[in-house]
Amino acid sequence: MCGSKVEYKVHNTNGIPAPSVRAEARVSKPTWSPVGGLVAYSSVQPGRFAVTVVDSQGQQLGELVLDDPPGCPAFYLHWAPCGTRLLMLTDWPSGQVALRAWDLGPLLLRQHRGPGSGRQLDTGRADRAVLLSTSRPLFLTCSPTSTRVLWQGDMQHYGLADCATTVDEDGAEHDRILSSPFPLTGARVPQWLQDSQGREWLLLVVGVPGFHDAHEVGEEPEAEGELLMLPVDVMEEAYEASGSRLTADLVRRISSKVCNIGDTYELRFAANVGGSIVAMSTRGLVIQYIGGPEQLFLDFLTDGQYHDSEVEAMQWSPDGRKLAVLIGEGATWFWMIWHSPEAGPPSQPGKDTAGAGLGCVMICQRHSPTAVMQREYLPFWDQYAQSLQLWSPDSQAFCYAAIQEEVSPGQELECIYVQQVPGLEEMLALEPTASSAEYASITLQVAYSGLEGSDPVSMPVLVGPPPSRVMPGSVATWSYS
Prior knowledge:
The protein is mostly beta strands and 481 residues long. 10% of the residues lie in helices and 42% in strands. It has 7 helices and 33 strands. The chain has helices at residues 105-113, 211-216, 232-242, 248-254, 371-377, 381-384, 424-428; strands at residues 5-9, 20-24, 26-32, 38-45, 48-55, 60-65, 75-79, 85-92, 96-103, 130-133, 139-142, 148-153, 157-162, 176-179, 191-194, 200-207, 225-231, 256-261, 268-271, 277-281, 285-289, 295-302, 305-306, 310-316, 322-329, 332-339, 360-363, 397-408, 411-420, 442-450, 453-457, 461-463, 468-472. Strands 19, 20, 21, 22, 23, 30 and 31 form a 7-stranded antiparallel beta sheet that branches. Strands 24-25-26-27-32 form a 5-stranded mixed beta sheet. It has a 4-stranded antiparallel beta sheet with strand order 3-4-5-6. The chain is globular and about 60 Å long.
Protein backbone atom coordinates (compact mmCIF):
# COMPACT_ATOMS: atom_id res chain seq x y z
CA MET A 1 0.00 0.00 0.00
CA CYS A 2 1.38 3.36 -0.91
CA GLY A 3 -0.37 6.72 -0.42
CA SER A 4 -3.79 7.06 -2.01
CA LYS A 5 -3.02 4.68 -4.88
CA VAL A 6 -3.16 1.18 -3.54
CA GLU A 7 -2.31 -2.07 -5.25
CA TYR A 8 -3.29 -5.48 -3.96
CA LYS A 9 -1.28 -8.18 -5.67
CA VAL A 10 -2.35 -11.82 -5.68
CA HIS A 11 0.75 -13.99 -5.51
CA ASN A 12 0.49 -17.62 -6.60
CA THR A 13 2.93 -19.81 -4.72
CA ASN A 14 3.15 -22.12 -7.73
CA GLY A 15 4.93 -19.41 -9.70
CA ILE A 16 2.10 -18.60 -12.12
CA PRO A 17 1.84 -14.85 -12.83
CA ALA A 18 -1.16 -13.30 -11.11
CA PRO A 19 -3.10 -10.06 -11.57
CA SER A 20 -3.15 -6.99 -9.39
CA VAL A 21 -6.10 -5.08 -7.98
CA ARG A 22 -5.62 -1.31 -8.27
CA ALA A 23 -7.76 1.21 -6.47
CA GLU A 24 -7.66 5.01 -6.69
CA ALA A 25 -8.63 5.40 -3.04
CA ARG A 26 -7.34 4.83 0.46
CA VAL A 27 -7.86 1.13 0.82
CA SER A 28 -7.40 -1.07 3.87
CA LYS A 29 -8.28 -4.34 5.59
CA PRO A 30 -8.16 -6.85 2.72
CA THR A 31 -9.51 -10.29 3.60
CA TRP A 32 -9.96 -13.50 1.60
CA SER A 33 -13.28 -15.30 1.62
CA PRO A 34 -13.19 -18.84 3.07
CA VAL A 35 -14.40 -20.24 -0.27
CA GLY A 36 -14.59 -18.98 -3.83
CA GLY A 37 -11.39 -16.93 -4.01
CA LEU A 38 -12.98 -13.54 -3.31
CA VAL A 39 -11.30 -10.56 -1.62
CA ALA A 40 -13.11 -7.85 0.35
CA TYR A 41 -11.57 -4.55 1.39
CA SER A 42 -12.59 -1.19 2.81
CA SER A 43 -12.03 1.97 0.76
CA VAL A 44 -12.25 5.70 1.46
CA GLN A 45 -12.74 8.56 -0.95
CA PRO A 46 -13.68 12.15 -0.04
CA GLY A 47 -17.17 11.96 1.45
CA ARG A 48 -17.56 8.32 0.50
CA PHE A 49 -16.93 5.09 2.42
CA ALA A 50 -17.36 1.72 0.72
CA VAL A 51 -16.65 -1.99 0.99
CA THR A 52 -15.61 -3.64 -2.26
CA VAL A 53 -15.53 -7.31 -3.24
CA VAL A 54 -13.39 -8.54 -6.14
CA ASP A 55 -12.51 -11.97 -7.45
CA SER A 56 -8.97 -13.37 -7.59
CA GLN A 57 -8.54 -11.90 -11.09
CA GLY A 58 -9.25 -8.36 -9.88
CA GLN A 59 -12.76 -8.15 -11.35
CA GLN A 60 -15.09 -6.11 -9.13
CA LEU A 61 -18.21 -8.06 -8.19
CA GLY A 62 -19.93 -5.54 -5.96
CA GLU A 63 -19.60 -2.44 -3.82
CA LEU A 64 -21.41 -1.52 -0.64
CA VAL A 65 -21.51 2.25 -0.13
CA LEU A 66 -21.74 3.39 3.50
CA ASP A 67 -22.65 7.04 3.24
CA ASP A 68 -25.17 7.43 6.08
CA PRO A 69 -23.05 8.05 9.20
CA PRO A 70 -19.80 10.05 9.02
CA GLY A 71 -16.69 8.94 10.85
CA CYS A 72 -14.38 6.06 10.02
CA PRO A 73 -14.63 3.45 7.26
CA ALA A 74 -15.90 -0.07 7.80
CA PHE A 75 -13.58 -2.22 9.88
CA TYR A 76 -13.29 -5.79 11.20
CA LEU A 77 -14.41 -7.22 7.86
CA HIS A 78 -15.31 -10.79 8.75
CA TRP A 79 -16.50 -13.45 6.30
CA ALA A 80 -19.06 -15.99 7.44
CA PRO A 81 -17.78 -19.56 6.89
CA CYS A 82 -20.23 -20.04 3.99
CA GLY A 83 -18.43 -17.34 2.00
CA THR A 84 -21.66 -15.60 0.92
CA ARG A 85 -22.09 -13.19 3.83
CA LEU A 86 -19.69 -10.46 4.97
CA LEU A 87 -19.92 -9.02 8.49
CA MET A 88 -18.45 -5.67 9.50
CA LEU A 89 -18.54 -2.87 12.05
CA THR A 90 -19.23 0.73 11.03
CA ASP A 91 -19.75 4.07 12.72
CA TRP A 92 -23.22 4.96 13.95
CA PRO A 93 -24.58 8.30 15.24
CA SER A 94 -24.12 9.32 18.89
CA GLY A 95 -20.84 7.48 19.21
CA GLN A 96 -22.40 4.06 18.68
CA VAL A 97 -21.05 1.22 16.57
CA ALA A 98 -23.20 -0.68 14.10
CA LEU A 99 -22.85 -4.37 13.27
CA ARG A 100 -23.87 -5.08 9.68
CA ALA A 101 -24.16 -8.12 7.43
CA TRP A 102 -23.85 -7.92 3.65
CA ASP A 103 -25.51 -10.81 1.79
CA LEU A 104 -23.42 -11.47 -1.33
CA GLY A 105 -25.65 -14.27 -2.60
CA PRO A 106 -27.28 -12.17 -5.39
CA LEU A 107 -23.88 -10.97 -6.63
CA LEU A 108 -22.41 -14.46 -6.67
CA LEU A 109 -25.48 -15.86 -8.41
CA ARG A 110 -25.29 -13.14 -11.05
CA GLN A 111 -21.61 -13.95 -11.57
CA HIS A 112 -22.43 -17.65 -11.93
CA ARG A 113 -25.19 -17.01 -14.48
CA GLY A 114 -22.96 -14.74 -16.53
CA PRO A 115 -23.41 -11.35 -18.22
CA GLY A 116 -26.92 -10.17 -18.93
CA SER A 117 -28.56 -12.22 -16.21
CA GLY A 118 -28.53 -9.50 -13.55
CA ARG A 119 -31.99 -8.23 -14.52
CA GLN A 120 -33.42 -11.59 -13.51
CA LEU A 121 -32.26 -11.23 -9.93
CA ASP A 122 -33.34 -9.19 -6.93
CA THR A 123 -30.50 -6.71 -7.32
CA GLY A 124 -31.94 -4.47 -4.61
CA ARG A 125 -30.29 -6.68 -2.00
CA ALA A 126 -26.91 -6.51 -3.68
CA ASP A 127 -25.99 -2.97 -2.68
CA ARG A 128 -27.14 -2.73 0.92
CA ALA A 129 -26.34 -4.39 4.22
CA VAL A 130 -28.61 -5.65 6.97
CA LEU A 131 -28.27 -3.82 10.28
CA LEU A 132 -27.83 -6.40 13.04
CA SER A 133 -27.05 -4.38 16.14
CA THR A 134 -26.17 -0.89 17.37
CA SER A 135 -25.58 -1.95 20.96
CA ARG A 136 -21.92 -0.92 21.01
CA PRO A 137 -20.47 -4.18 19.67
CA LEU A 138 -16.68 -4.18 19.83
CA PHE A 139 -15.68 -7.66 18.69
CA LEU A 140 -17.48 -10.40 16.82
CA THR A 141 -17.34 -14.03 15.75
CA CYS A 142 -19.61 -15.97 13.41
CA SER A 143 -21.18 -19.37 13.98
CA PRO A 144 -19.89 -22.34 11.92
CA THR A 145 -23.32 -22.48 10.26
CA SER A 146 -23.00 -18.82 9.15
CA THR A 147 -26.45 -18.02 10.56
CA ARG A 148 -25.60 -16.18 13.78
CA VAL A 149 -23.00 -13.83 15.14
CA LEU A 150 -21.79 -13.41 18.73
CA TRP A 151 -20.55 -9.97 19.69
CA GLN A 152 -18.82 -8.60 22.77
CA GLY A 153 -19.02 -5.01 23.89
CA ASP A 154 -18.62 -2.54 26.75
CA MET A 155 -16.25 -4.88 28.60
CA GLN A 156 -19.16 -6.81 30.14
CA HIS A 157 -21.84 -7.58 27.54
CA TYR A 158 -22.29 -10.42 25.07
CA GLY A 159 -24.95 -10.38 22.38
CA LEU A 160 -26.31 -12.86 19.87
CA ALA A 161 -27.77 -11.73 16.55
CA ASP A 162 -29.27 -13.49 13.56
CA CYS A 163 -27.23 -12.73 10.45
CA ALA A 164 -30.35 -12.00 8.40
CA THR A 165 -32.50 -10.05 10.87
CA THR A 166 -32.76 -6.27 10.90
CA VAL A 167 -33.09 -4.76 14.37
CA ASP A 168 -34.39 -1.42 15.53
CA GLU A 169 -31.96 1.44 15.96
CA ASP A 170 -32.57 1.65 19.70
CA GLY A 171 -29.45 -0.12 20.92
CA ALA A 172 -30.77 -3.63 20.31
CA GLU A 173 -31.10 -4.36 24.02
CA HIS A 174 -32.96 -7.57 23.31
CA ASP A 175 -29.92 -9.02 21.56
CA ARG A 176 -27.87 -9.04 24.76
CA ILE A 177 -27.71 -12.56 26.18
CA LEU A 178 -25.35 -11.77 29.05
CA SER A 179 -24.70 -8.59 31.01
CA SER A 180 -22.12 -9.31 33.67
CA PRO A 181 -22.00 -7.08 36.76
CA PHE A 182 -18.24 -7.59 36.80
CA PRO A 183 -16.74 -5.57 33.90
CA LEU A 184 -13.35 -6.56 32.55
CA THR A 185 -10.41 -4.20 32.24
CA GLY A 186 -9.91 -5.36 28.66
CA ALA A 187 -12.43 -6.45 26.06
CA ARG A 188 -11.58 -9.86 24.65
CA VAL A 189 -12.61 -11.40 21.34
CA PRO A 190 -14.82 -14.49 21.73
CA GLN A 191 -14.45 -17.53 19.50
CA TRP A 192 -17.22 -19.75 18.13
CA LEU A 193 -15.87 -23.30 17.81
CA GLN A 194 -17.07 -26.65 16.53
CA ASP A 195 -15.45 -29.81 17.90
CA SER A 196 -14.80 -33.07 16.08
CA GLN A 197 -18.26 -34.35 17.07
CA GLY A 198 -20.00 -31.35 15.52
CA ARG A 199 -20.92 -29.74 18.85
CA GLU A 200 -20.60 -25.95 19.01
CA TRP A 201 -18.87 -24.07 21.82
CA LEU A 202 -18.25 -20.44 22.72
CA LEU A 203 -14.82 -19.59 24.09
CA LEU A 204 -15.16 -16.38 26.10
CA VAL A 205 -14.07 -14.52 29.23
CA VAL A 206 -16.51 -13.68 32.03
CA GLY A 207 -15.67 -11.44 34.99
CA VAL A 208 -15.70 -12.79 38.53
CA PRO A 209 -16.75 -11.06 41.76
CA GLY A 210 -14.20 -9.57 44.11
CA PHE A 211 -11.65 -8.25 41.63
CA HIS A 212 -12.58 -4.56 41.81
CA ASP A 213 -13.37 -4.73 45.54
CA ALA A 214 -9.90 -6.15 46.25
CA HIS A 215 -8.25 -3.33 44.32
CA GLU A 216 -10.21 -0.71 46.25
CA VAL A 217 -8.89 -1.99 49.59
CA GLY A 218 -5.34 -2.46 48.31
CA GLU A 219 -5.41 -6.26 48.15
CA GLU A 220 -4.13 -8.44 45.34
CA PRO A 221 -7.11 -10.22 43.74
CA GLU A 222 -6.83 -13.86 42.76
CA ALA A 223 -8.39 -13.43 39.32
CA GLU A 224 -10.27 -10.89 37.25
CA GLY A 225 -12.12 -13.38 35.10
CA GLU A 226 -12.46 -16.93 33.92
CA LEU A 227 -11.87 -18.28 30.43
CA LEU A 228 -14.82 -20.56 29.73
CA MET A 229 -15.94 -23.09 27.14
CA LEU A 230 -19.71 -22.60 26.92
CA PRO A 231 -21.69 -25.28 25.02
CA VAL A 232 -24.10 -23.53 22.67
CA ASP A 233 -26.90 -26.11 23.03
CA VAL A 234 -26.86 -25.87 26.83
CA MET A 235 -26.70 -22.08 26.63
CA GLU A 236 -29.77 -21.98 24.38
CA GLU A 237 -31.74 -24.24 26.73
CA ALA A 238 -30.80 -22.09 29.73
CA TYR A 239 -31.67 -18.90 27.84
CA GLU A 240 -35.12 -20.21 26.89
CA ALA A 241 -35.78 -21.54 30.38
CA SER A 242 -34.81 -18.29 32.09
CA GLY A 243 -36.84 -16.11 29.76
CA SER A 244 -34.31 -13.32 30.20
CA ARG A 245 -30.61 -12.65 29.98
CA LEU A 246 -28.21 -15.16 31.40
CA THR A 247 -26.38 -14.24 34.58
CA ALA A 248 -22.62 -14.51 34.91
CA ASP A 249 -23.08 -17.05 37.69
CA LEU A 250 -25.31 -19.26 35.51
CA VAL A 251 -22.87 -19.07 32.60
CA ARG A 252 -20.04 -20.20 34.87
CA ARG A 253 -22.14 -23.12 36.14
CA ILE A 254 -23.02 -24.48 32.70
CA SER A 255 -19.54 -23.93 31.21
CA SER A 256 -16.27 -25.80 31.39
CA LYS A 257 -13.58 -23.59 32.88
CA VAL A 258 -10.34 -23.46 30.96
CA CYS A 259 -8.47 -21.41 33.57
CA ASN A 260 -8.55 -18.33 35.77
CA ILE A 261 -7.38 -15.06 34.23
CA GLY A 262 -5.44 -12.76 36.53
CA ASP A 263 -5.58 -9.70 34.29
CA THR A 264 -7.56 -9.41 31.06
CA TYR A 265 -5.98 -6.16 29.86
CA GLU A 266 -3.07 -7.83 28.07
CA LEU A 267 -4.73 -11.22 27.63
CA ARG A 268 -4.72 -12.98 24.28
CA PHE A 269 -6.16 -16.42 23.64
CA ALA A 270 -6.77 -18.65 20.63
CA ALA A 271 -8.14 -22.17 20.24
CA ASN A 272 -7.00 -24.53 17.51
CA VAL A 273 -9.42 -26.06 15.04
CA GLY A 274 -11.80 -28.28 16.97
CA GLY A 275 -11.04 -26.49 20.24
CA SER A 276 -8.85 -29.26 21.68
CA ILE A 277 -5.99 -26.90 22.66
CA VAL A 278 -6.20 -23.28 23.84
CA ALA A 279 -3.16 -21.00 23.86
CA MET A 280 -3.15 -17.97 26.19
CA SER A 281 -0.70 -15.20 26.89
CA THR A 282 -0.07 -14.14 30.46
CA ARG A 283 3.49 -13.34 31.54
CA GLY A 284 4.54 -16.02 29.09
CA LEU A 285 2.61 -18.45 26.91
CA VAL A 286 0.24 -21.01 28.40
CA ILE A 287 -0.94 -23.99 26.34
CA GLN A 288 -3.95 -25.72 27.88
CA TYR A 289 -5.25 -29.08 26.68
CA ILE A 290 -9.06 -29.08 26.91
CA GLY A 291 -10.65 -31.94 28.84
CA GLY A 292 -7.52 -32.73 30.83
CA PRO A 293 -5.18 -31.22 33.43
CA GLU A 294 -2.19 -30.97 31.08
CA GLN A 295 -0.85 -27.44 30.87
CA LEU A 296 2.38 -26.23 29.31
CA PHE A 297 3.92 -22.91 30.35
CA LEU A 298 6.63 -21.26 28.26
CA ASP A 299 8.47 -18.14 29.35
CA PHE A 300 11.18 -16.38 27.40
CA LEU A 301 14.48 -15.32 28.89
CA THR A 302 17.30 -13.30 27.35
CA ASP A 303 20.79 -13.70 28.80
CA GLY A 304 19.25 -15.63 31.65
CA GLN A 305 16.98 -12.75 32.65
CA TYR A 306 13.30 -12.07 32.11
CA HIS A 307 12.83 -9.31 29.60
CA ASP A 308 10.00 -7.09 28.50
CA SER A 309 9.00 -9.23 25.54
CA GLU A 310 5.29 -9.66 24.98
CA VAL A 311 3.05 -11.94 22.96
CA GLU A 312 1.84 -9.57 20.24
CA ALA A 313 -0.08 -12.06 18.12
CA MET A 314 -0.79 -15.75 17.74
CA GLN A 315 -2.49 -17.95 15.19
CA TRP A 316 -2.99 -21.69 14.84
CA SER A 317 -2.25 -23.50 11.60
CA PRO A 318 -5.26 -24.91 9.69
CA ASP A 319 -4.39 -28.46 10.78
CA GLY A 320 -4.37 -27.40 14.45
CA ARG A 321 -0.87 -28.79 15.06
CA LYS A 322 1.31 -25.66 14.93
CA LEU A 323 1.03 -22.36 16.76
CA ALA A 324 2.69 -19.20 15.41
CA VAL A 325 3.43 -16.65 18.15
CA LEU A 326 4.80 -13.17 17.48
CA ILE A 327 7.14 -12.07 20.28
CA GLY A 328 7.77 -8.35 20.60
CA GLU A 329 11.17 -7.52 22.04
CA GLY A 330 12.11 -3.87 21.74
CA ALA A 331 12.76 -2.83 18.15
CA THR A 332 13.28 -6.37 16.85
CA TRP A 333 10.59 -9.01 16.96
CA PHE A 334 10.50 -12.65 15.98
CA TRP A 335 7.99 -15.38 15.24
CA MET A 336 8.10 -18.49 17.39
CA ILE A 337 6.50 -21.73 16.16
CA TRP A 338 5.40 -24.35 18.67
CA HIS A 339 4.84 -27.75 17.06
CA SER A 340 2.63 -29.95 19.20
CA PRO A 341 3.76 -33.51 19.97
CA GLU A 342 2.64 -36.19 17.55
CA ALA A 343 0.97 -38.36 20.21
CA GLY A 344 -0.37 -35.59 22.46
CA PRO A 345 1.10 -34.58 25.81
CA PRO A 346 2.48 -37.18 28.22
CA SER A 347 0.21 -38.00 31.15
CA GLN A 348 2.92 -37.47 33.76
CA PRO A 349 5.39 -34.60 34.14
CA GLY A 350 8.99 -35.54 33.54
CA LYS A 351 7.99 -38.73 31.74
CA ASP A 352 8.63 -38.95 28.00
CA THR A 353 9.32 -35.22 27.88
CA ALA A 354 12.79 -35.59 26.40
CA GLY A 355 13.19 -34.95 22.70
CA ALA A 356 9.81 -33.93 21.30
CA GLY A 357 7.61 -35.32 24.09
CA LEU A 358 6.14 -31.85 24.60
CA GLY A 359 6.68 -30.77 21.03
CA CYS A 360 9.39 -28.30 20.09
CA VAL A 361 9.89 -24.60 19.40
CA MET A 362 11.31 -23.04 16.25
CA ILE A 363 12.60 -19.44 16.40
CA CYS A 364 12.31 -17.44 13.16
CA GLN A 365 14.38 -14.54 11.87
CA ARG A 366 14.29 -11.28 13.82
CA HIS A 367 12.47 -8.47 12.06
CA SER A 368 10.56 -5.22 12.49
CA PRO A 369 6.86 -5.35 11.53
CA THR A 370 5.58 -2.78 9.05
CA ALA A 371 3.95 0.40 10.33
CA VAL A 372 0.52 -0.72 9.14
CA MET A 373 0.79 -3.99 11.05
CA GLN A 374 1.92 -2.27 14.24
CA ARG A 375 -0.61 0.55 14.04
CA GLU A 376 -3.75 -1.03 12.61
CA TYR A 377 -3.62 -4.80 13.07
CA LEU A 378 -1.59 -5.92 16.07
CA PRO A 379 -3.45 -3.86 18.72
CA PHE A 380 -6.62 -5.75 17.70
CA TRP A 381 -5.01 -8.94 16.51
CA ASP A 382 -7.40 -11.40 18.18
CA GLN A 383 -10.19 -10.01 15.98
CA TYR A 384 -8.15 -9.78 12.79
CA ALA A 385 -6.78 -13.28 13.33
CA GLN A 386 -10.25 -14.58 12.44
CA SER A 387 -10.12 -12.98 8.98
CA LEU A 388 -6.41 -12.44 8.16
CA GLN A 389 -4.99 -15.90 7.49
CA LEU A 390 -1.20 -16.00 7.75
CA TRP A 391 -0.84 -19.76 7.32
CA SER A 392 -0.83 -21.61 4.02
CA PRO A 393 -3.75 -24.05 3.56
CA ASP A 394 -1.41 -27.04 3.98
CA SER A 395 0.04 -25.63 7.27
CA GLN A 396 3.59 -25.84 5.91
CA ALA A 397 4.33 -22.11 5.69
CA PHE A 398 3.08 -18.71 6.82
CA CYS A 399 3.46 -15.16 5.54
CA TYR A 400 4.13 -11.86 7.27
CA ALA A 401 5.01 -8.25 6.45
CA ALA A 402 8.27 -6.75 7.72
CA ILE A 403 10.75 -3.98 7.02
CA GLN A 404 13.78 -4.87 4.95
CA GLU A 405 16.52 -2.70 6.34
CA GLU A 406 19.48 -1.15 4.54
CA VAL A 407 18.03 -1.35 1.04
CA SER A 408 20.11 1.76 0.46
CA PRO A 409 21.65 4.21 2.93
CA GLY A 410 18.88 5.70 5.03
CA GLN A 411 16.08 3.81 3.24
CA GLU A 412 13.86 0.92 4.27
CA LEU A 413 11.55 -1.24 2.19
CA GLU A 414 8.39 -2.93 3.41
CA CYS A 415 8.28 -6.49 2.13
CA ILE A 416 6.23 -9.68 2.31
CA TYR A 417 8.02 -12.78 3.55
CA VAL A 418 7.11 -16.46 3.50
CA GLN A 419 8.46 -18.66 6.28
CA GLN A 420 8.60 -22.39 5.65
CA VAL A 421 7.63 -24.53 8.66
CA PRO A 422 8.88 -28.14 8.50
CA GLY A 423 7.24 -31.12 10.13
CA LEU A 424 8.20 -32.26 13.60
CA GLU A 425 10.96 -34.67 12.57
CA GLU A 426 12.48 -32.17 10.14
CA MET A 427 12.20 -29.44 12.75
CA LEU A 428 14.16 -31.49 15.29
CA ALA A 429 17.01 -31.70 12.79
CA LEU A 430 17.42 -27.90 12.71
CA GLU A 431 20.26 -26.02 14.38
CA PRO A 432 19.68 -25.34 18.10
CA THR A 433 19.64 -21.76 19.33
CA ALA A 434 22.64 -22.41 21.58
CA SER A 435 24.89 -22.83 18.54
CA SER A 436 23.63 -19.70 16.75
CA ALA A 437 25.23 -16.41 17.72
CA GLU A 438 22.12 -14.42 16.82
CA TYR A 439 19.82 -16.56 18.95
CA ALA A 440 22.16 -17.78 21.68
CA SER A 441 20.61 -15.38 24.20
CA ILE A 442 17.06 -16.72 23.68
CA THR A 443 16.12 -19.53 26.02
CA LEU A 444 12.90 -20.92 27.38
CA GLN A 445 11.82 -21.65 30.89
CA VAL A 446 9.34 -24.50 30.55
CA ALA A 447 6.96 -25.90 33.14
CA TYR A 448 4.55 -28.75 32.54
CA SER A 449 1.73 -29.86 34.80
CA GLY A 450 0.14 -33.24 34.21
CA LEU A 451 -1.69 -35.65 36.42
CA GLU A 452 0.84 -35.71 39.24
CA GLY A 453 2.07 -32.16 39.72
CA SER A 454 4.64 -29.91 38.09
CA ASP A 455 8.34 -30.34 37.42
CA PRO A 456 10.83 -28.39 35.33
CA VAL A 457 11.12 -29.93 31.87
CA SER A 458 13.11 -29.28 28.73
CA MET A 459 12.00 -28.55 25.21
CA PRO A 460 14.08 -28.30 22.02
CA VAL A 461 14.49 -24.67 20.86
CA LEU A 462 15.68 -24.59 17.26
CA VAL A 463 16.51 -21.98 14.60
CA GLY A 464 14.21 -21.98 11.60
CA PRO A 465 15.31 -21.70 7.97
CA PRO A 466 15.60 -18.17 6.58
CA PRO A 467 12.36 -16.78 5.11
CA SER A 468 11.85 -16.00 1.43
CA ARG A 469 11.20 -12.41 0.38
CA VAL A 470 8.26 -12.49 -2.04
CA MET A 471 7.45 -8.88 -2.99
CA PRO A 472 7.14 -5.36 -1.58
CA GLY A 473 4.10 -4.85 0.62
CA SER A 474 2.82 -3.81 4.04
CA VAL A 475 0.18 -6.48 4.79
CA ALA A 476 -0.03 -10.12 3.73
CA THR A 477 -2.77 -12.73 3.99
CA TRP A 478 -2.98 -16.24 2.56
CA SER A 479 -6.06 -17.58 0.80
CA TYR A 480 -7.94 -20.39 2.54
CA SER A 481 -7.76 -22.80 -0.39
